[in-house]
Design goal:
Order of helices and strands of chain A: HEHHEEEHHHHHHHE
CATH architecture of the largest domain in chain A: Up-down Bundle
Structural class of chain A: mainly alpha
Strand content of chain A: 5-15%
Shape of chain A: globular
Number of domains of chain A: 2
CATH topology of the largest domain in chain A: Four Helix Bundle (Hemerythrin (Met), subunit A)
Number of helices of chain A: 10
Number of strands of chain A: 5
CATH class of the largest domain in chain A: Mainly Alpha
Helix content of chain A: 55-70%
Oligomer: homodimer
DNA sequence: AACCACCCACTTCCATACAAGTCAACACAA
DNA sequence: TTGTGTTGACTTGTATGGAAGTGGGTGGTT
């Protein structure tokens, strides 16, 4: 989960273990571009800020390195990773492939109850789309998760979540101008085609929906080139 | 990478950081079924065994929890996770979806050089198939990675690797009776169809290749039911 | 015999201290 | 002025000690 709400005013729960909580907080701060690429995070500084020792901070760092959000340079420092242009493209590729197969599953057999639930979700999305883009992102996530769950591969979405963070970072940078309404309409079309059991068209609709980020990615890159690495123009970033 | 060779007789490199090395070693021992499901791993014990302190061991544990190989029950102990039947199925689903799209990419345009390289790999696979199944697994991994790389999504394979460990555990349990020759022939057919640029047939060949595990999985489950959780028969494993 | 309260060895989690590497600033010499 | 060597304040990596929680065994009571 993105844990979008109230991240800045986070208080640690003394009952639960500290390090997983720190992990969630820091991940959210990075994805929301609150902690900017290349900025330095020091273990003792964050430890003091959250009133804990270095050890749990360090453990949170390690997990975030695995997610590709941090980079630890031994004896030098820990830095927020730049957004890896190639990683974003590859994550998108994986996501398109998986969700396309999910749609094929769903569209190949009738499922009235599912369609009804999805239409309810879309109604909520329409409400949020014009207002809070933050809430819309949550609903969008829920929508895609529902599809995976209905196809009997809820775990597959868990796998995708770990990949998705790179895409989400781009999303949060282009935030305001995000075409939420367009995306809701695309969702709706996918549901329509599932209902009609038009497998090929439904799959293609989902694929083109997931190619939307290919439009915004170059724009974001042009505005903030310093936030990216492995960009198409400069193959040799060291 | 699986790091298949020399894991048991591993000596830590004092120069490099200890905790990532421990991570590789422990992961390999789990995947190879050297550390059996439900067996208990104690921080101080492993620390003594490798001549280091508890802290790096603990950090290795944490990363392996994220990979779904370990389970830390606070104040109780750390245990090798059972093989999650559902997770294996979902991992397989993801892998099929991604690799199917990779094949579509490759088969849709001529690529003589790639085909030549792949044929060389397959020749090596034939050699290894009759002899060392361990080496065959390495070559198999290389083959699939080559496909991803040729499609321009090398990173996508990195993502899959994190998922694949659950599948690999099954593989290593069914080890001896593994139909290596069959798999090589399936590889060969995929390459043939790529060369002929028969997109649909190539995709379907890859999909059915990746469904092979669906045959062996129930067998392994029947032989070692105590190593599995979330198995289809018993929905309520607690 | 059956049951219950207590204790103690064990676990993970966190705090703290120390070790070792990096790098920038500064003094100093050519 | 320029180049160079050195120092010292940083960084992350590792070791170790204590805190809190868990669970099994023990001994006493009913």
């Amino acid at each position: 989960m993105l844990e979008l709400i109230d991240i800045d005013a986070w208080k640690l729960d003394q009952q639960k273990a500290v390090s997983p909580q720190l992990r969630v907080v820091l991940r959210s701060r990075i994805i929301r571009n609150n902690l900017k690429p290349m900025s330095r995070l020091s273990e003792p500084e964050l430890a003091k800020e959250y009133g804990v020792s270095r050890q749990p901070v360090r453990e949170a760092f390690i997990t975030l390195v695995d997610e590709g959000l941090l980079e630890i340079r031994p004896q030098r420092g820990t830095f927020v990773k730049k957004i890896d242009y190639e990683a974003v493209l590859n994550a998108r590729f994986v996501r398109e492939a998986v969700e396309a197969d999910i749609i094929r599953q769903l569209a190949s057999r009738p499922n009235a109850e599912l369609v009804a639930n999805l239409r309810q979700e879309i109604a909520d999305q329409y409400k949020a789309a014009s207002g809070s883009p933050l809430q819309f992102i949550e609903l969008d996530e829920r929508f895609h998760r529902s599809l995976a769950q209905a196809a009997g591969v809820a775990r597959a979405w868990d796998y995708l979540e770990a990949i998705k963070s790179q895409m989400d970072r781009v999303r949060f940078m282009t935030f305001e101008e995000f075409p939420s309404i367009t995306l809701v309409k695309q969702h709706e079309q996918v549901v329509d085609l599932i209902e009609q059991q038009d497998v090929k068209a439904a799959e293609e609709a989902m694929r083109s929906h997931l190619r939307e980020i290919l439009k915004s990615l170059p724009k974001v890159h042009e505005i903030y080139p310093e936030y990216f690495e492995n960009s198409p123009g400069s193959p040799r970033d060291t």
